[in-house]
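Help needed: design a sequence for this.
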């Protein structure tokens, strides 16, 4: 009797092992153990500064980690805040292993003294004393005597303190200023008229012209905040900055008043400067000097500490131009800068957990020598235009902030505007006034005439200049520029300088009219020429990050009033027209799109990994049973099918008689309406289901479930499952390890480079957005750099810039000689991404071949020319050119055995300028014709 082969238990063991490992992942603790943080309230008595009646008591809290000594971080708060606002950030940094000193600046919270707006002799000197105090703490790591390892962070008022301190105290080792100013005169009295500084090629560089127009609404709000009387200090340990033992100092004496009651908690010098500006709108030389001395611009040429600048794109108080100037000045002095523009600011959200994590990473590397180098790159947030307004915005990352290197600079796109010179009225007293935003209330940029009807320009006070609808979308990242001609109207009354406000509207479809960022560019000009001859002026509009969609129009409005500013109160009429080449210049910054958004169903990824693990084990168990059916003639063909078909119960055919061939180096699009059989086809190609008839071959090998040749195929078909508590990189490593192949064969670096994941691959997947998970799934499919890449709807969850990046990724991958098969419902993207198409309808093949052949069909070609009528006459004289038709800006013809190059040469010889040549048809038209009008899924 024949001996029956002994059945091995290895497949069963493999299945059990994978299930146990996957269950372990699911039951893994969702949060790491949080280190214990010590917190101790202190009252630190600091030496008196010039004009102080007594020593100043600073209310502070010292946070200490489990392990000391450790690097220290000094945390400063925003204007009107106190140390209480810093508690969450302080604890987060302490949990990372830092000693943190959070404090209330003089005049705020329970601290005594008068508010000096970051006076070098007062608030900045206070911070220097606090660093000296930290140097004497045994918990703080030291670089030497009286020199602690210390970083400084803060937002707004506290961010400026970080810059001023770094520029005056070389003990500071790293700083992270957020949503702050470079120059108080520029910030509170902006003037957007004039050329940017010579040689400045950064995206948000503004002119140096000051003083300009007083930002009265913001200034009044800030003054009101600082006017609030101080409350009694809470009980705390008493300490002196010049006493080493923090427990043995005497209680601090409160500072006496040094100004009138109308000044609240402000110093008399600051109070007098505000009173002057609020009553006259114009600063004296003394006020200009006071603001300059309290501005980081006065010390940026001395900052050598690595600087992380975080600025908000929703900020009518301190716009993107402030961080732009700081970055330029620090870099010119030899310092290093990393820049982030996030979706928030004084008119939006404060920096949230993700940004505070970036701050922590910055200090980890520069103070504690741990973690990866954050580098000196640039990251900016895109507006959230999706249906879920609560979802975090998408971001774009670039290797560097443009214009900081000698061989680097901002790219610009010019948009032509049209509009006649228009007289605009400055009403007596400056009222009524236009409205652009409500400072500090987060309402900047609401749709004009839409919800709230916020942005309003008054008739008779505005001149407008408008573009044609855009042919393609443009992502603005920076401060647009325009040249205007401004002139007096002879015979009309006019006294004093001319004040105007320039703003950019995005005119969408219907009544959609949006003022991005809610910000305006105020300009103050000198006396205009009495004879009416124009003065030409370059205007730098507010820095924004905003996508202009195809079909949108752009409007530049120039008004004589704005509610947020103190403009001219004298009546007059001014003529405003376009100058220069009548273009609006739009800055753009190319980069790699990324997403950071928590998933809505975190456990689904883990469950998918369990399923994947089981599938891997089952495949491993049955690989021995596969036949080695091989066709040597197809050894170099990535994919071929012959008579492929699939039927289910009842004899229903989902795919019938499908025969296709995909060659090396191609990017092939698989198209078809709902029910065409695309997903079923992909599953048969990958061996996930068996065909009812016909065959699939990959590089000549017959495909059955578990076929060894499938190791040369990377796929993303039915969604990737990731373990949420692991980083993206750890997920990729775990996936590859489950395939049983060596880590070296994964070629992780190559896959990550092509997919463009950047530093986000080191973050936990539960902090990823849907789009970022798509990019991680693409990287997973590319592991091992497979010769054939099969992707189902890879653009799902990606925004337009990310989809643009995906095109480049797939093209780059195919350029290596490998092959990509993409199934997608985005016809326009398939047309731009793929070079070949396979079109299915009702389970059958209806077309296959190059995209250009399928789109052109009958050979019709469109030529965009400067003179369509003359072009039509010239084409009618050529042999092999038929059915010539001209329209407003182009001419179309059907070419019969006549090369396009011959036709173009004939048009140029006839003196006709040819701007563009392309097939008349669109993929959408060809697709609908092939499938009888049914739509893609």
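Sure. Designed sequence:
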């Amino acid at each position: 009797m024949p001996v029956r082969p002994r059945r091995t238990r290895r497949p069963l063991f493999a299945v059990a092992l994978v299930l146990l490992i996957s269950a372990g992942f699911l039951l893994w603790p969702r949060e790491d153990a949080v280190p214990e943080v010590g917190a101790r309230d202190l009252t630190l008595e600091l030496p008196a500064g010039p004009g102080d009646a007594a020593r100043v008591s600073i209310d502070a809290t010292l946070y200490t980690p489990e392990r000391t000594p450790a690097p220290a971080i000094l945390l400063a708060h925003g204007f009107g805040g106190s140390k209480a606002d810093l508690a969450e950030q302080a604890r987060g940094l302490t949990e990372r292993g830092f000693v943190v000193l959070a404090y209330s600046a003089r005049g705020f919270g329970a601290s005594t003294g008068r508010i000096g707006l970051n006076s070098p002799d007062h608030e900045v000197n206070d911070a220097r004393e606090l660093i000296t105090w930290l140097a004497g703490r045994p918990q703080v790591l030291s670089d030497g005597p009286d020199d602690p390892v210390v970083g400084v962070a803060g937002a707004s008022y506290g961010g400026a303190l970080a810059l001023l301190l770094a520029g005056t105290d070389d003990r500071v080792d790293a700083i992270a200023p957020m949503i702050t100013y470079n120059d108080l005169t520029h910030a509170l009295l902006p003037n957007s008229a004039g050329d940017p500084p010579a040689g400045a090629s950064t995206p948000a560089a503004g002119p140096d012209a000051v003083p300009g127009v007083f930002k009265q609404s913001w200034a009044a709000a800030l003054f009101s905040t600082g006017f609030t009387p101080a409350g009694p200090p809470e009980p705390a340990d008493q300490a002196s900055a010049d006493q080493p033992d923090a427990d043995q100092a005497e209680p601090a004496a409160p500072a006496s008043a040094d100004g009138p009651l109308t000044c609240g908690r402000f110093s008399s010098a600051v109070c007098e400067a505000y009173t002057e500006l609020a009553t006259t709108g114009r600063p004296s030389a003394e006020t200009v000097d006071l603001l300059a001395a309290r501005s980081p611009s006065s010390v940026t040429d001395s900052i050598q500490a690595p600087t992380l600048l975080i600025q908000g794109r929703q900020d009518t108080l301190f716009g993107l131009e402030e961080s732009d100037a700081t970055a330029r000045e620090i870099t010119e002095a030899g310092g290093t800068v990393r820049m982030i523009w996030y979706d928030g600011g004084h008119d939006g959200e404060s920096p949230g957990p993700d940004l505070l994590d970036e701050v922590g990473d910055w200090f980890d590397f520069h103070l504690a020598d741990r973690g990866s180098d954050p580098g000196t790159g640039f990251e900016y947030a895109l507006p959230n235009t999706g249906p879920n307004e609560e979802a975090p915005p998408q971001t774009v990352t670039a290797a560097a902030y443009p214009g900081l290197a000698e061989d680097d600079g901002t790219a610009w796109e010019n948009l032509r505007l049209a509009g006649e010179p228009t007289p605009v009225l400055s009403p007596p007293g400056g009222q009524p006034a236009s409205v652009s935003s409500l400072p500090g209330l987060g309402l900047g940029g609401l749709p004009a005439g839409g919800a709230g009807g916020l942005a309003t320009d008054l008739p008779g006070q505005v001149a407008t200049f408008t573009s044609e609808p855009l042919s393609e979308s443009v992502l603005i990242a920076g401060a647009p520029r325009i040249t205007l001609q401004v002139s007096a109207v002879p015979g009309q009354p006019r006294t004093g300088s001319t004040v105007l406000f320039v703003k950019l509207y995005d005119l969408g479809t219907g009544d959609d009219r949006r003022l991005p960022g809610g910000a305006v560019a105020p300009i103050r000009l000198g006396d205009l020429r009495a004879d009416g001859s124009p003065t030409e002026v370059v205007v730098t509009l507010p820095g924004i990050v905003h996508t202009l969609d195809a079909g949108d129009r752009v409007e530049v409005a120039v008004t004589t009033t704005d509610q947020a500013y103190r403009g001219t109160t004298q009546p007059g009429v001014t003529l405003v027209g376009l100058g220069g080449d009548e273009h609006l210049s739009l800055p753009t910054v190319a980069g790699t799109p990324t997403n950071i958004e928590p998933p809505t169903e975190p456990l689904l990824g883990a469950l998918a990994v369990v399923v994947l693990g089981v599938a891997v084990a089952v495949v491993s168990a049955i690989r021995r049973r596969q036949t080695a059916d091989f066709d040597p003639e197809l050894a170099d063909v990535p994919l071929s099918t012959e008579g492929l078909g699939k039927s289910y119960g009842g004899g229903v055919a989902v795919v019938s008689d499908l025969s296709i061939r995909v060659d090396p180096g191609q990017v092939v699009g698989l198209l078809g309406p709902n029910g065409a059989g695309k997903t079923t086809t992909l599953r048969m190609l990958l061996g996930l289901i068996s065909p009812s008839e016909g065959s699939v071959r990959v590089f000549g090998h017959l495909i059955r479930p578990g076929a060894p040749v499938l190791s040369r195929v990377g796929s993303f078909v039915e969604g990737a499952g990731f373990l949420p508590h692991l980083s993206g990189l750890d997920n990729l490593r775990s996936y590859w390890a489950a395939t049983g192949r060596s880590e070296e064969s994964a070629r992780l670096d190559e896959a990550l480079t092509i997919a463009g994941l950047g530093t986000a691959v080191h973050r936990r997947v539960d902090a990823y957005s849907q789009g970022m998970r798509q990019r991680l799934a693409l990287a997973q499919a590319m592991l091992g750099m497979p010769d054939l890449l099969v992707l189902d709807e890879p653009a799902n969850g990606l925004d337009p810039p990310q989809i643009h990046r995906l095109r480049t990724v797939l093209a780059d991958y195919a350029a290596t000689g490998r092959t990509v098969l993409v199934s997608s419902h985005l016809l326009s993207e398939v047309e731009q991404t793929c070079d070949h198409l396979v079109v299915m309808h009702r389970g059958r093949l209806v077309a296959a071949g190059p995209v250009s052949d399928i789109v052109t069909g009958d050979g019709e070609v469109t030529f965009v020319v400067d003179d369509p009528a003359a072009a039509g006459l010239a084409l009618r004289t050529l042999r092999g050119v038929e059915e010539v038709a001209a329209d407003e800006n182009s001419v179309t013809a059907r070419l019969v055995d006549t090369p396009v190059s011959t036709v173009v040469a004939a048009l140029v010889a006839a003196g006709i300028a040819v701007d563009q040549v392309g097939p008349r048809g669109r993929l959408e038209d060809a697709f609908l014709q092939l499938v009888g009008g049914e739509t893609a899924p």
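The chain has a mean pLDDT of 81.
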